[in-house]
Specification:
single chain, mainly alpha, two-stranded parallel ribbon, two-stranded antiparallel sheet, 10 strands, about 10% strand, globular
């Protein structure tokens, strides 16, 4: 059992995660020639702004009791602890949707550019999540369930150990980063049974794997900020979100593979609908 004394370091690690995300994403956007110097910087500033807004909204919806009556000041205060990753991811997606529309080349196809941008940003995003979760671990605000495992951590004032849930989340993000970086760096040469990878595939796999891992890791979480989170039908709210999101994204992924195999498409709008249209045309042709 590991004796552990929390330190107030979450903001420092969150700031480090934002800086790493900005610098790494900027380098990839320039390397892939997806944006000029000025546009790439503005693009990422918009994405990061939406990520912070998304984190705050999610945090308030999940735990309104941790915000004081000075709600607006708490909402904009960067030192406030509640920066939930699901809200960050939702905010990043919103920021990418808007930024891609504003900063894409004039003649570029929106859906095609959107898929390429998502593929680029999820790699630095996974690394940023790894760093941010280290701050959660040191801060100690993610309370794991009691455990007698050798790597369980014991907080001051407690006579038992707990699962280091934040460490599980951090290691999960690091594993996702390693997998995504491998596929990203080998995108042009690595082959699946269907051929070269299509645009948007890495982003879809990121969301699917993250939600799948988060769903199971949350079984080791008792609560946040020293409390016990409410459960609905035996699951935490974030677990329901992860479960639904995983199903939806896998539901998107299968039609994408089918369409890529038979139509050799590189970009996709709404894959399930596109697959239905493709099958309808095929039936009419037969």
């Amino acid at each position: 059992m590991i004796h552990f004394r929390p330190i107030d370091a979450e903001f420092i690690f969150m700031l480090a995660a934002v800086i790493v995300f900005f610098v790494y994403s900027y380098a990839l956007l320039r390397r892939k020639k997806l944006a000029g110097k000025r546009d790439a910087a503005m693009y990422l500033l918009v994405v990061i702004t939406f990520a912070v807004i998304g984190a705050r909204i999610w945090g308030f919806a999940d735990r309104p009791d941790i915000f004081s009556r000075q709600f607006f000041l708490d909402f904009v205060n960067p030192m406030h602890a509640d920066m939930q990753s699901m809200g960050v991811i939702a905010g990043v997606f919103a920021g990418v949707l808007i930024s891609t529309f504003v900063f894409r080349p004039k003649k570029a196809h929106y859906q095609y550019e959107l898929a390429r941008f998502f593929d680029v940003l999820v790699v630095p995003g996974a690394l940023a999540l790894f760093i941010a979760r280290l701050g959660c671990l040191l801060d100690g605000h993610i309370l794991g369930k009691p455990s007698a495992l050798p790597w369980a951590i014991q907080y001051p004032g407690e006579a038992f150990g707990r699962h280091p849930a934040a460490a599980y989340l951090s290691l999960s993000a690091l594993l996702i980063f390693a997998v995504l970086k491998f596929f990203f760096d080998h995108k042009k040469t690595s082959k699946t049974r269907l051929g070269k990878r299509f645009d948007g595939e890495i982003a879809v796999w990121f969301v699917s794997i993250y939600c799948f891992n988060r769903f199971w890791i949350e079984f080791f979480v008792q609560g946040h900020h020293g409390g016990t989170d409410p459960r609905y039908l035996g699951l935490l709210g974030v677990q329901w979100v992860c479960l639904v999101t995983s199903v939806l994204f896998l539901f998107h992924l299968m039609p994408m593979y089918i369409l890529y195999k038979f139509e050799k498409r590189k970009a996709f709008g709404y894959p399930p609908l596109s697959l239905i249209k493709y099958l309808s045309r095929k039936d009419q042709a037969d």
